[in-house]
Amino acid sequence: MGDSWINVPGGQLTGVRDLARASQAIGANDDYTVTAVGGATMSAIAGQYAMQEASATKPKVLVMDGGTIDTIAGQGSEASAAAAVTAFQQLLTKVAADGTVQQIVYFMVPELPAIYGVSALRPLMQQACAGSVVPCHFLDLQPSWAGHPEYTASNGILPTDAGARVMASLLWATMQASCIAQ
User: Fold this and answer.
1) Distance linking the first and last C-alpha atoms of the chain
2) What is the Cα–Cα distance from 120 to 36, expressed in whole angstroms?
3) What is the pLDDT of residue 181?
4) Which residues of 125-138 are buried (b: 16+ CB within 10 A; e: fewer)?
């Protein structure tokens, strides 16, 4: 769940799925449920979670991003970062109260000139993730993105196919290291 970094260009989704299938963590025909929508604020992402939680298929693991649309809209202000974190903390509280999610993998997009507020948002989201009752694993894409302009699309906002492959590998490595959905 999350915004466009979950589903554009798409290779990050199929990459994680293919790695999970190859390791037999999921069946050969199994797939993940994707609720991400481009341009989703953290409050809208909480709505994505609520819709899935209300469905017959309760989520056990959340793989998500979020918060940067909030900071882009707020021109990277501290107030916009704080509001995104508050919405994330409220989501984490709701997830814990519902009791179906066992693990969360939250990834922070890299610092890109067109995505305002990532440097202000990163430590706050990392702290919120660390304080979650439901185990939350924070993945920072910045170290892997540094020095690799080929990972970012020409719009300066979204990943390329090469970036999607890197994301898939990092997400799967995080899931393996923490025995998530294995």
Assistant:
1) 19
2) 23
3) 84
4) bbebbeebebebbb
Please name the residue that has the structure tokens 């481009």: 38
Mean pLDDT of 9-29: 95
Q: What is the pTM for the complete model shown?
A: 0.96
In DSSP terms, 152 is beta-bridged to: 159
Give the pLDDT confidence of 53-84 residue by residue, as tens digits. 999 999 999 999 999 999 999 999 999 999 99
Three-state SS for 136? strand
Contact 73, 42 (CB under 8 A): no
Domain coordinates in residue numbering, the chain: 4-177
Q: Does domain 4-177 have CATH number 1.10.3720.10?
A: no
Could you read off the pLDDT of 156-166 as tens digits, one per residue?
Answer: 999 999 999 99
Nearest to 69 by CA among 129, 142, 5: 5
Give the pairing type, strands 103-108 and 61-64: parallel
The two three-digit tokens of residue 23, written as one number: 């390791």
| Residue 179 φ then ψ, to 5° | 50, 45
